[in-house]
Amino acid sequence: MDCNFEQIAEAIRYVEANKPRQPSLAEVASHLGLSQLYFQHMFTAWAGISFNRFLEFLSVGYAKRVVEEENFSRPVAACTTGSSCACGLHAPVVHIDGMTPDECRGGAAGLQLHYVFSQSPFGELIVASTGKGVCYAAFADGGREAAIRSLQAAFPLATLQEHPDVHNTCAARIFQLDGTGVDEVRLHLKATPFQVKVWKELVEVPVGHLTTYLQLAHSIGNARASRAVGRAVACNPVALLIPCHRVIHSSGRIGNYHWGPERKAAIIGWEAALCTSCTTGC
C-alpha cells in the first residue's frame, strides 16, 4: 500500500492540534479524506504498529521516561551506532570533520559539490557531498528546484552537479533503509569547533533513544552551555545522519525542528516503534 508521508505528517499535526479532546482514529482518517480501515493499514505499513500505539511514543510521559535513563541500554535504544539488528535497521558509524578555513572562505568558492535526491520514510531529501564527505542533507519539501536553490544558498560560490558519488550514495542508501554493508559515513561540514563537538556527541545517541539540551551540555563537559548547545543543534546541516530530532526539552516536550515539528514527532515515533519491535534481536 502506498504511503504518502504528507498524510502521516498531517495526521500527527491534526492530533497535536486537537490533543485536549483526543480525536478518534475514525476522525483522523476522515480529516485526511480516507476510510478508517485504509488509514490504519497505510499507517501500520509505514510504522509497523497501529496509529494509537504510535501516539504513545509521542507522549510527554514516554519521552520523560526515556531521557531519565542515564545510559543507552534500555530496550528502545537497542539499535546502536555501528550495528545492524533484527528489524533490518543499520546504523553506521558517523565520522565528522570540519571544513578548513580555506574551504569555508568566500562562500565555499572552488568547492565542487555533488548532489543526489533520496527517498526516506519521512520524505525526499537532497544529499550533497564534497570529495571528503557529505556536507548537506535536507528534506526537499518545496520540490527539487527549491531544494537545489537552498543548497546553493548554503554554499553560494560552490559548483553544483547532480551526480552520485561514494559519499552521497552511502547516505542515500541509509535513508532508503538499504544500508547493509555501509559501515561508516563521513561528513565534511562547514562548522565551528564547538558545533563539531556537539554534533560528534549527538551522533552517539542511539536510534530509539532521546536526549536533552542539558544532557548534551553535560556530555561535552559544560553543563552551563545548554543554550549554546541548542543553537548548535539548530544549525545542523545534515538531517537524520546527525540526529538532532532526538533532542527534546527536559520537560518531555518534543519541541521545534528545522523541517517541522510533526516530522520530528514522526521520526521519533517511527524509530521507537522500530527498535521496540526488535529488542530481542538487536
TrEMBL record:
GO MF entries: DNA-binding transcription factor activity; methylated-DNA-[protein]-cysteine S-methyltransferase activity; sequence-specific DNA binding
InterPro entries reported for this sequence: Homeodomain-like_sf (IPR009057), HTH_AraC (IPR018060), MethylDNA_cys_MeTrfase_AS (IPR001497), MethylDNA_cys_MeTrfase_DNA-bd (IPR014048), MethylDNA_cys_MeTrfase_DNAb (IPR036217), MGMT_N_sf (IPR036631), WH-like_DNA-bd_sf (IPR036388)
CDD domains reported for this sequence: ATase (cd06445)
Ranges for domain HTH araC/xylS-type: 9-107
Catalytic activity: a 6-O-methyl-2'-deoxyguanosine in DNA + L-cysteinyl-[protein] = S-methyl-L-cysteinyl-[protein] + a 2'-deoxyguanosine in DNA; a 4-O-methyl-thymidine in DNA + L-cysteinyl-[protein] = a thymidine in DNA + S-methyl-L-cysteinyl-[protein]
One Pfam family per UniProt: DNA_binding_1
SUPFAM superfamilies: Homeodomain-like (SSF46689), Methylated DNA-protein cysteine methyltransferase domain (SSF53155), Methylated DNA-protein cysteine methyltransferase, C-terminal domain (SSF46767)
Entry's EC annotation: 2.1.1.63
UniProt keyword list: DNA damage, DNA repair, Methyltransferase, Transcription, Transcription regulation, Transferase
Enzyme class, broadest EC rank: transferase
Superkingdom classification of source: Bacteria
GO annotation (BP), single: methylation
Family: Belongs to the MGMT family.
Name this polypeptide is given: methylated-DNA--[protein]-cysteine S-methyltransferase
